[in-house]
Amino acid sequence: VTGSSGKTSVKNIIYDILKDKEIVFKTKKSFNTLKGIEISINDLKDIYVNSTLVLEMGAKKKNDIKEICRLVKADIGIITNILPQHLETFKSIDNKKKKKSNIILSIKENGYAIFNIDDIRLKDYIKVIKEKRKDLKIYTYSLNDKSAYVYAYDIKYSLYNTSFKIK
Question: Minimal CA–CA distance to 75: which of 32, 113, 125?
Answer without folding.
Answer: 113
